[in-house]
Amino acid sequence: MLDYKLLAALAAVVEQGGFERAAQALALSQSAVSQRVKLLEARVGAPVLVRASPPRATPAGQRLLNHVQQVRLLERDLRSELPIMDEDHAVPRLRIAINADSLATWWAEAIGSLCRDEHLLLDLLVDDQDVGLRRMRAGEVAGCVCSSAEPVAGARSVRLGVMRYVAVASPGFVHGELQGGADCARLVRVPAIVFGPDDQLQHRFLAALGMTGDFAHHLCPSSDGFVRMLRAGVGWGMVPALQIADQLASGELVELVPECSVEVPLYWHYWRHGGGLLERLTQQLTAQASHLLS
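Structure for LysR family transcriptional regulator, chromosome initiation inhibitor, as requested:
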């Protein structure tokens, strides 16, 4: 039989990124948290944590974390149906992995009313849209927005829509660095701006123009900072058209190759047995995304 105090210790270590912060979150000593994790491993008969920095779950630990996520959501449903269980008046928290561009554009509008109605708090973990599903697989989150259609075991996925990315730069960058033209030969000789190591949008755009291989680029892991660097003429980059509609309309940014864009499908993944809250969130997202995304 599972001991949920031991599972809570495992979840806290992974979610808080270490034993010290997990101890603070659980109001325990660090040694007590460590002992609970060791006891869980003894009962499971296998390691549940890789003691790295930050710690991460082993395959056995991932299965336990997936279970914890679903139990938390089901317990919330019980609290609403059985008031005696809600004596601590805890406000529910939901951990979700989401790509930065969705967070910077359509996400808040899509879920705002649900958060207010459900008195829901969100822990949003930002990952690139191509890798966010790792969080689900690792048992760290109850749902994620990513570009992969295939759900992990025990989860479902629904298509939300398409995020269209366009290659843009400032007029000054185009005239000064690209000599007024944005063909592939020129683009690979000037700096691009890339969100992070997992960001392949610029690569896909250049591949569509016939270029493969590496190119000079800045790394800027901030959606707002990304656009600011483009406006400052630091480089060129791929941005959601939804995010820069005003800058394109004003001419502050210009599209480099209007006939060529990169379309990224977005999917919502959530646990199959995650209870009523996840189902309501899924309904809200699919309804709102139908007109917020193309």
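Residues 59-81 form the longest helix (23 residues).
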